[in-house]
Amino acid sequence: MDVLDIQLENCYGIQKLEATLTFKKSAKVPAGSAFSVYAPNGFMKTSLARTFLDVQEGRDSQDLIFPTRKTSRSITSDPATPITPESLFVIKPYVERYAGAGTSTLLVNPKLRHEYEEAVQNIDSTQEDFLKTLKDISGWPGRTSPISEVKDVFQFKNPYDFFAGLADNLDGDTRFSDLKYTEIFNDKTVAAFKSGALHEQLQEYMSKYQELVDKSPLLSKKFNHTGAADVSKSLQGNGFFDAKHTLNILSGGERLEVASAKELDELVVAEKQRILGDKELSAKFEAVDKQLQKNLELKRFREYLTEHPEILAELANFHEFRKKLWNSYFNVAKPALILFAAAYASAKDVIAETAHQAEVEKTKWAAVVAQFNERFYVPFKLVVQNQQDVILKGESPKVTFEFRDEQGECGVEEEKLLQVLSQGEKRALYILNVLFEIHARRESNQETLLIIDDIADSFDYKNKYAIIEYFNEIAKIPFFRLLFLTHNFDFHRTISSRLQIARSRRLFAKKNQGVLAFVEEKYQKNPFTTWKNGLAQNPVFLVASIPFVRNLAEYCHGVTSPHYLMLTSLLHVKANSTTLTIGDLEASFKATLLDQANLSLPNPTKSAMQLIYDETDALAVKADDNVELESKVILSIGIRLRAEEFMISKINDPEFVKDISSNQTFELYSKFSLMFPDASDQIMVLSQVNLMTPENIHLNSFMYEPILDMSALHLYDLYGKVKALV
């Protein structure tokens, strides 16, 4: 991906953007993997990131505010090849519960993952066939598997071991295999079985039923009507009666010879009807029956009982009966179960070896966690929890959090952790998941364009530099390309410096009549150095340097020095402001900037105030919304001077103005507001002057980034309003 071509129209507020980013080497520019684009708030940063995210997630882009506008989106790599979703990774500023698609692949190295997946492929396939058979036999409804119900009944942890162990321990009992499980056991029936009244009545019914069976001339506790029916079915199925054999039955001391299955069935049915027809047993059934008419589900179960009265005797111990039902289903599904058990046995050694290796090997995923713990300053430590289970059971990867303070540490759930972390600490946790995804792409050699959208917002400096250092490392990966988008000039400057991004790849977003463009950053290092070297050649640099040199004069000469006071008179309207000349400005600059002893400014007799107004007016006429620092400083100076001129003329109290020793603009504003409370429109404009200009004028080498972050359009608008006041 040597060239990235972006052609956008009407994408989330971006009316038009045409940009070509060249990563490959040219005659003057070395090859590079990263671009950094700085844009003031409200320009295009989030919109551009969202457009790239649409490509990544396979969506069309649009203009949300003006949906009828035709949207055009073309993002290609060389040679004019559309960017594919898998080659994009958009990193948002913050997502609270982000988990990348590549995270789980980091838990084991590729070789171990391949061996395990190959070993369990047949296991999974045969288990799926078995569960499908079990679902059909049990009448389990819907599309879900009955595995969760079986797990609840038999209380096992590993379904592989449980089902494999069943294959050698089936008893062949299929007596209840014709019953539908959910007709007997569902939320309503289980709740009823657990209730005291029904449970007691079921116990009484079973006790009477067993008493009648024990007294039966034909049946017994071990040979009840269900067992007799199984005998009949087995004899008939094996051709016993067809071979002309007969069966001797002892009934009440009398020996009966049975020559057919029909005769045996008739004997059993008659005895069954005699027992179930017993008056006392019937009375106990009525008590149970009354409990089964409380809601629709229980009534449905009651109807099922009338068709299968033999169930009633089993329900006294309904927990055990649930197991009997599933055992009946298991016995019918035995062929499918045996296939699964064979597949599991053949792969067991491979799985055990892989599990052992997974336990002892330090994985890539664990390395990312260790890197995070080492580099980021947060009040918690991350620990890999289920590395082996991800390999063997397909579980999602998990980490545990150990929170620590001055008095100790303890484990904490992610939900509670997020409630106590600061915004910056939450972002650090989000960064961890981003690192997983990037590391996964690195391990799979996935050529990727990373769109990094203000990733360091809300970070303290330690964590900001930790993430910058990480990006510095991945920028060296040959198949990664990085595009940083930020409205934080300090981050733009730092990332450009640390990653040694070439001058032509440090860009500012510029807007002209709605059309966006990327232009090369004017100041690569300290803008004041550029200004100082151009004082005599460029009046813009001269005017913009006044507040900076005034600050230096304060530090070097003190607040009572003539140089400090003279420069102050060009930032506030004083009695001598209009008499000061460019020659006066030159003298103070020479006295403060020791390397400017030979400074010779043109037009030394011209009014310094007039120079400021001329440059401010020239900028206002052009009204170009660029991000150059000097333009915004000059606009702020001109706005405040004109505002003070207006307020001084209206207050018309020279002694009051003369006595102001600090915060002159605010003091004038307060006096004006008291004297002219009905001048609401003028007060509104003047309040904006107080809000927008002070920090822009009292700037130094550490605090000029906020000025860049402000759109010049706001300053043009305010300057026009202030000029209209005068």
In short:
The protein is of the alpha/beta class and 726 residues long. It contains 33 helices and 15 strands. Helix 4 packs antiparallel against helix 14.
Structural write-up:
By secondary structure, this protein is α/β, with parallel strands linked by helices. Among the domains are: 3-105 and 445-520, Rossmann fold; 181-307, no CATH class; 527-725, no CATH class. The protein is built from 33 helices and 15 strands. The strands form 3 sheets. It has a 10-stranded mixed sheet with strand order 5-4-1-2-15-14-3-13-12-6, with helices on both faces. A 3-stranded antiparallel sheet has the order 9-10-11. It is elongated, with a radius of gyration of 42 Å. The relative contact order is 0.10. The model has no long low-confidence stretch (mean pLDDT 81).
